[in-house]
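User: For a reading group we're discussing how well predicted structures match intuition. Take fructokinase. Before you show the prediction, I'll give you the sequence so everyone sees exactly what went in.
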Amino acid sequence: MPGIGRFAGIELGGTKAITILAEGDRIIERHVEPTRDPGTTLTSLRNRIDAWQARTPLDGLGIASFGPLQLDPGKRGFGEMLATPKPRWSGAKVAGILTGGLDCPWRIDTDVNGAALAEYRWGAGQGCTSLCYVTIGTGLGGGLLIEGRPVHGAMHPEIGHLRLRRAEGDAFQGACPFHGDCIEGLVCGPALAKRLGMDPAQAPDDHPGWRHAASDIAELCGAILLTSSAQRILFGGSVATSRPFLLPWVRAQIVEQLGSYLPFLSPDSVEHIVQPAGLGTDAGPMGAIALAQAAATTPSI
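Assistant: Thanks. Here is the predicted 3D structure of fructokinase, as structure tokens, for the group to look at:
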């Protein structure tokens, strides 16, 4: 049963990688290191897993990685990185290096699908059947759960690369190397640095660029609600959580834009629908543990 056993999890992010060891749902060991080139990073993570496995056999391993990833086991390159803006990581054999020859069940998914699963089981998504977890930091990603299961299909959701309606008067061209002014290219950390003309952490709260960023995030929330009918949208990541005024602005704009059309959306309900992730910075690592538990107990999530 989930909650019983010895599980290892890897949250492989674009900036840092976290390996955790858990007894059931309780983290007992944690290690953090920078995400460098694929060979150095993946070998270091694998060495940690091998050391834990040698000490006491693991019941499961979960890998929650930045993407995009090939997640179809029937496709060539399963578990590998697809084309990604992160230099040298396109084509990286993430699952192959981390699991090759490892004698325990394992599962790989996106970091945001993993975080969504963790929030569903232990965090602010408890009681929901559908939710979307959105992280805004170095990049922007979204994990989507329907009936408690991460969404997969032709690939996996790439919410960060939606191109949405822009606020009137906003001339910022965006910073995504693939799509320019997709939502990631508008509000992720590096994009905000260009948009605000300074380190976002140093930008004053009254900088007009924050209003445009809030408008973009509200458009993203509207697209998620209209397409997935998610019961909750949970935000994580440094950008989303570092400015307390952002989510109230986003909520107000969502209601203004969609409150007359979506019957479940009102000034009162929106605070429950759009909120910070409940697990904070542990959403990603615990997502990896949720994947490890799923690998140990079920043939598929």
